[in-house]
């Protein structure tokens, strides 16, 4: 089979060196990659490096190999164009249709999916001009990944860091799988909770659960690839941040509730994939609870945690807001799931069977998605990404 053809555009930012890792992942996974750098980017990584790593010729000018009409042919032949890093200057040129080098010409001629991975200082990213350019590109169907938060050039820290190349690759892989067309979640803000809450008993112990957060992260990654703006509220996962998601950390059920309610106020969809502890210790011991010879430990009194899913479903602040819940069951799975759907008041409920060696921590899942209108969608055993896409298919259909 013919290899998928990817154009990797590299613009002139210090993060250009990280694109080498993205290029390696693309080529090693069977893609034919043509690197098109800007002239400014060659101050950071030279043309020889790109040519050696890609196995293809590298040029920045429309005048090289004129007989092949590269400023037209490269974009026409591509299955995907990804620009990483995409500087503020590059986003502005792309939004306004400027074409003063080979990369900007390629962007104008491409009819395939286009992904931008911005990287710049926080002030540049937050400037109204940049935000308007990003909104324009997204409106046209491009996937513009939200930059990460972290260390920037020099001592600066903030939003504007290039996401991890491995996570950018995952976005590209998913976008390639879906093919051309405006992403069906473009313009939507989705809030996703993931992981498992931990309820402190003393400074070293807690009540928790086996949730790894992998299903929630799969939902976040697939939503980004489908054009959504994603807020991921993570509880104790230890997983790498998905490219393009705004990350909010939460530890306990109470903290998760506060974060979800705040984010839900501006969301089109809220997906409660996190495993929220139903109970927490009534009292917190400020010192480690000691084991005493000859004595049994004192009973631990528990109190109920807030029901975040029911609260969000009952208190929707935006017209048409969709709420998706998850139900982890060990017996009478569908019967319990249908009762939970009725009780919680959500639009969709993903019901799956869990256990010590089932679902939690696994890369695969199997579920049935129940709908408030009576629909049932079975998702066979397979990657959690497949279940995530089924959920977004059902969500997108309801928006249509």
UniProtKB/TrEMBL annotation:
<dbReference type="InterPro" id="IPR036551">
    <property type="entry name" value="Flavin_trans-like"/>
</dbReference>
<keyword id="KW-0456">Lyase</keyword>
<feature type="domain" description="Flavoprotein">
    <location>
        <begin position="5"/>
        <end position="172"/>
    </location>
</feature>
<dbReference type="InterPro" id="IPR035929">
    <property type="entry name" value="CoaB-like_sf"/>
</dbReference>
<dbReference type="InterPro" id="IPR005252">
    <property type="entry name" value="CoaBC"/>
</dbReference>
<feature type="binding site">
    <location>
        <position position="340"/>
    </location>
    <ligand>
        <name>CTP</name>
    </ligand>
</feature>
<feature type="region of interest" description="Phosphopantothenoylcysteine decarboxylase">
    <location>
        <begin position="1"/>
        <end position="189"/>
    </location>
</feature>
<comment type="function">
    <text>Catalyzes two steps in the biosynthesis of coenzyme A. In the first step cysteine is conjugated to 4'-phosphopantothenate to form 4-phosphopantothenoylcysteine, in the latter compound is decarboxylated to form 4'-phosphopantotheine.</text>
</comment>
<protein>
    <recommendedName>
        <fullName>Coenzyme A biosynthesis bifunctional protein CoaBC</fullName>
        <ecNumber>4.1.1.36</ecNumber>
        <ecNumber>6.3.2.5</ecNumber>
    </recommendedName>
</protein>
<keyword id="KW-0288">FMN</keyword>
<dbReference type="Pfam" id="PF04127">
    <property type="entry name" value="DFP"/>
</dbReference>
<dbReference type="InterPro" id="IPR003382">
    <property type="entry name" value="Flavoprotein"/>
</dbReference>
<comment type="pathway">
    <text>Cofactor biosynthesis; coenzyme A biosynthesis; CoA from (R)-pantothenate: step 2/5.</text>
</comment>
<dbReference type="GO" id="GO:0004632">
    <property type="term" value="F:phosphopantothenate--cysteine ligase activity"/>
</dbReference>
<feature type="binding site">
    <location>
        <position position="344"/>
    </location>
    <ligand>
        <name>CTP</name>
    </ligand>
</feature>
<dbReference type="GO" id="GO:0004633">
    <property type="term" value="F:phosphopantothenoylcysteine decarboxylase activity"/>
</dbReference>
<comment type="pathway">
    <text>Cofactor biosynthesis; coenzyme A biosynthesis; CoA from (R)-pantothenate: step 3/5.</text>
</comment>
<comment type="similarity">
    <text>In the C-terminal section; belongs to the PPC synthetase family.</text>
</comment>
<keyword id="KW-0460">Magnesium</keyword>
<keyword id="KW-0436">Ligase</keyword>
<dbReference type="InterPro" id="IPR007085">
    <property type="entry name" value="DNA/pantothenate-metab_flavo_C"/>
</dbReference>
<comment type="similarity">
    <text>In the N-terminal section; belongs to the HFCD (homo-oligomeric flavin containing Cys decarboxylase) superfamily.</text>
</comment>
<feature type="region of interest" description="Phosphopantothenate--cysteine ligase">
    <location>
        <begin position="190"/>
        <end position="400"/>
    </location>
</feature>
<keyword id="KW-0511">Multifunctional enzyme</keyword>
<keyword id="KW-0210">Decarboxylase</keyword>
<dbReference type="Pfam" id="PF02441">
    <property type="entry name" value="Flavoprotein"/>
</dbReference>
<comment type="function">
    <text>Catalyzes two sequential steps in the biosynthesis of coenzyme A. In the first step cysteine is conjugated to 4'-phosphopantothenate to form 4-phosphopantothenoylcysteine. In the second step the latter compound is decarboxylated to form 4'-phosphopantotheine.</text>
</comment>
<feature type="binding site">
    <location>
        <begin position="306"/>
        <end position="309"/>
    </location>
    <ligand>
        <name>CTP</name>
    </ligand>
</feature>
<feature type="domain" description="DNA/pantothenate metabolism flavoprotein C-terminal">
    <location>
        <begin position="185"/>
        <end position="396"/>
    </location>
</feature>
<feature type="binding site">
    <location>
        <position position="288"/>
    </location>
    <ligand>
        <name>CTP</name>
    </ligand>
</feature>
<keyword id="KW-0479">Metal-binding</keyword>
<feature type="binding site">
    <location>
        <position position="278"/>
    </location>
    <ligand>
        <name>CTP</name>
    </ligand>
</feature>
<keyword id="KW-0285">Flavoprotein</keyword>
<feature type="binding site">
    <location>
        <position position="326"/>
    </location>
    <ligand>
        <name>CTP</name>
    </ligand>
</feature>
């Amino acid at each position: 089979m013919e290899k998928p053809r990817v154009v990797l555009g590299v613009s002139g930012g210090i993060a250009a060196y990280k694109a080498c890792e993205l290029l390696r992942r693309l080529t090693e996974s069977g893609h034919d990659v043509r690197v098109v750098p800007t002239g400014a980017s060659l101050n950071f990584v030279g043309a020889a490096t790109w040519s050696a790593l890609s196995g293809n010729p590298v040029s920045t000018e429309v005048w090289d190999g004129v007989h092949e009409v590269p400023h037209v042919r490269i974009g026409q032949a591509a299955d995907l164009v990804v620009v990483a890093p995409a500087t503020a200057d590059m986003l502005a040129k792309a939004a306004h249709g400027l074409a003063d080098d080979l990369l900007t010409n390629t962007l104008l001629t491409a009819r395939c999916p286009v992904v931008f991975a911005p990287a710049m200082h926080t002030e540049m990213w937050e400037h109204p001009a940049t935000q308007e350019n990003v909104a324009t590109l997204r409106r046209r169907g491009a996937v513009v990944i939200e930059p990460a938060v972290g260390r920037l050039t020099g001592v600066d820290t903030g939003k504007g860091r290039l996401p991890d190349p491995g996570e950018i690759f995952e976005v590209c892989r998913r976008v390639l799988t879906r093919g051309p067309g405006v992403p069906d979640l473009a313009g939507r803000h989705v809030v996703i909770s993931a992981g498992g809450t931990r309820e402190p008993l003393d400074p070293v112990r807690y009540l928790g659960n086996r949730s790894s957060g992998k299903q929630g992260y799969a939902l976040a990654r697939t939503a980004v690839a489908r054009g959504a703006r994603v807020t991921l509220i993570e509880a104790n996962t230890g997983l790498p941040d998905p490219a393009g998601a705004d990350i909010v950390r939460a530890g306990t059920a109470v903290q998760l509730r506060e974060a979800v309610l705040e984010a839900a106020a501006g969301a089109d969809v809220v997906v409660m994939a996190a495993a929220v502890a139903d109970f927490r210790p009534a009292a917190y011991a400020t010192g480690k609870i000691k084991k005493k010879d000859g004595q049994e430990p004192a009973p631990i009194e528990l109190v109920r945690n807030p029901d975040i899913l029911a609260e969000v479903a009952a208190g929707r602040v935006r017209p048409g807001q969709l709420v998706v819940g998850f139900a982890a069951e060990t017996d009478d799975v569908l019967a319990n799931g249908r009762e939970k759907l009725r009780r919680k008041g959500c639009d969709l409920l993903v019901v799956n069977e869990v256990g010590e060696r089932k679902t939690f921590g696994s890369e695969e899942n199997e579920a049935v998605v129940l709908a408030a209108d009576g629909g049932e969608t079975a998702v066979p055993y397979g990657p959690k990404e497949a279940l995530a896409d089924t959920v977004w298919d059902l969500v997108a259909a309801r928006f249509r």
